[in-house]
Amino acid sequence: MLFPHCSVAQSNQDCAAARECDISSLLEMLASATDLRKARGRQYLIGFVLAVTMVAVFAGASNYSEIARRARDVSQEMLMRLGSEWD
Question: Which of 19, 51, 63, 70 is deepest in the core (most CB within 10 A)?
Answer without folding.
Answer: 51
